[in-house]
Design a protein that fits this description.
- By secondary structure, the chain is α/β, with parallel strands linked by helices.
- The chain has one domain.
- The chain is built from 4 helices and 4 strands; from the N terminus they run βαβαβαβα.
- A 4-stranded mixed beta sheet has the order 2-1-3-4, sandwiched between helices.
- α3 links the parallel β3 and β4.
- The chain is globular and about 35 Å long.
Length: 131
């Protein structure tokens, strides 16, 4: 039987479309908790989540997708306790981000814009907002 060796990816947080000052403050909290922040603007929406997080096998191929204007925070390779600490600190500093998620085997192949658009839909459904 062959052993499957999984390469552990460095804990990463994609900070999508955060305003400059907020982006800096969120990045600082992530860094202090040992999570590498990657600050992204809307031009990054066309790249796969896996590529942006540094997963092997993902290239910088441009994908066709929406270009959402919402802010989002996407965690990859971050342990639950660390993620909860970051989210608590963001709440305390009044730097919360409404749209957030964890990278999965499924969504890492998605364009970041498609993932953020899906998060927008879920957020609206959960909060009873009509489109």
């Amino acid at each position: 039987m062959k052993a499957r060796i999984q390469t552990r990816i460095a804990p990463t947080a994609l900070l999508y479309n955060l305003e400059n000052k907020r982006s800096y403050e969120v990045a600082q909290i992530c860094s202090e908790e040992g999570v590498h922040p990657v600050q992204l603007d809307t031009m990054s929406a066309v790249y796969s989540v896996g590529y942006l997080c540094g997963y092997k096998g993902f290239t910088g191929e441009i994908m066709n997708c929406e270009i959402p204007q919402s802010e989002a925070l996407v965690f990859s390779g971050v342990e639950r306790q660390t993620m909860n600490t970051i989210l608590d600190r963001l709440r305390e500093s009044k730097n919360t981000v409404d749209l957030k998620c964890v990278v999965t085997d499924t969504n890492k192949a998605w364009a970041l814009g498609a993932l953020v658009a899906e998060l927008e839909k879920e957020h609206k459904m959960m909060h009873g907002v009509q489109s």
